[in-house]
Amino acid sequence: MKIVISGNYGAGNIGDELILEGLLDITRKNFPESKITVLSGNPKETKEKHKVNSLEKVPAGFRSFFKSLLIEKCASRKAIKECDFFVMGGGGLFGGIEKKANCIWGMQALLPIIYKKPLIMVGQSIGRVDNSLIKFIIKNVFNRAKIISVRDVNSKKILKNIGVKGKIHVVPDNVFRLKNKSLKQRSKTIIVALRQMENLPGGFIKNISNFLKYLKKRDGWKIKFIDFQSGKHSDGIIHKKVIKNFYDPASIEHISNIKNKDQLFNEFAEAEFCLCMRLHSVIVSMITGTPFLALNYAPKIAGVVQLARLQDYILPLEKATAGRVNKKFQKILKNKDKISRDLDSYCKKAYNRHMEAEDGMMRNFNNSYSKFFQYQSY
Predict the structure, then answer these.
(1) Domains of the chain, first to last
(2) Which of 62, 124, 238, 252 lies at a C-alpha separation of 20 to 30 Å from 33?
(3) What 3-state DSSP class applies to 21?
């Protein structure tokens, strides 16, 4: 069996690499004899990091895309044409902040549609959709899919509202499949994982700086910034702006080159608190039992937190003043032991859901693609 997987891989984003690791774990366990090809922005890196065959993504420009149809030696086109099914892994590929992304990912889904390959949409988060062209793209891609799973209830509602007809499963993020093997002892450390983006609320950087400076000066907290995105839109850009506001910036640790999942999990498992803006910093906090406060900039953040019934640990970005963040922090700190137990309980539940999904795939995949996920939605 030949399987092609596509997503935002090889793009310098830790969260997307964790998603791929979870998706490969599912695929390898259930189809051990299959030949897997991952379409990536950096095939060499993907091949080395995940030990999988990898090719360049399908060209996303209109001219280059249709040109690739005419080039016989286009390896990604050939892989899709010869595959048994095509998986588009999440997360927030459609809707959301970057409008152009919808066209890019719509083009990635077009080739399997042209070649009439079963299309499987896994672990998607759908952002706000208020443009008729984007609605058209999303509606047509998802209506062609044999199986659809999303990471939160709101994404399911959005798809239904724009006219997606098929059954939509609401399931935890694939990253919940990944086990935390760290045995680190916690230290008085705060991890900060912000997201570089335009149009931040006025005073946001100053507010976060003031909150962190207050904790460091008054209570001696160690502050550690971790970049989840590298490259052109690196989180290091916003992290450096915050660090610059400290009286002693040289005392602040800034990690810009996390090498693998184990290193990342160790960092979180050692910390007592995480100030999260990146979605997968929230999820890694959950997996490692690290109390967190999520700064909500997009529906996918609220969706994952609400799915886990952890609404007390989220704050809208525009309300993230130093005072409000500190108030939430102090409340969380008082209940940190209970919060860690709650997080552990939820992650076990999410992991078990994925195990049920695997059983369903094994029993039903060869008979019906629509039974790819066989478990009750949340």
Answers:
(1) 2-171 (3.40.50.11930), 189-346 (3.40.50.2000)
(2) 124
(3) helix
Residue with tokens 């086109």: 77
Classify burial at 243, counting beta carbons within 10 Å of its beta carbon; exposed 0-12, middle 13-18, buried 19 or more. buried
What beta strand segments (E) does the chain contain? 2-6, 35-40, 53-56, 85-89, 119-124, 147-150, 168-170, 189-193, 222-226, 253-255, 273-276, 292-296, 314-316
Q: Give the total residue count for the chain.
A: 378
pLDDT tens-digit map of 261-281: 999 999 999 999 999 999 999
**Over the stretch 107-125, which tens digit does the pLDDT of each residue have?**
889 899 999 999 999 889 9
Is 62 buried (19+), middle (13-18) or exposed (0-12) by CB count in 10 A?
exposed
Judge contact between 12 and 230, C-beta under 8 A.
yes
Which residues are CB-neighbours of 274 under 8 A, at least 6 positions away?
190, 191, 192, 193, 268, 281, 282, 285, 290, 291, 292, 293
Whether the per-residue pLDDT at 98 is higher than 80: the answer is no
Tokens of 367: 């008979």
Query: What's the Cα-to-Cα distance from 229 to each of 57, 90, 259, 260, 278, rounded to whole Å?
Result: 19, 16, 12, 13, 9
Query: In this structure, are residues 124 and 273 in contact, taking their beta carbons and an 8 Å threshold?
Result: no
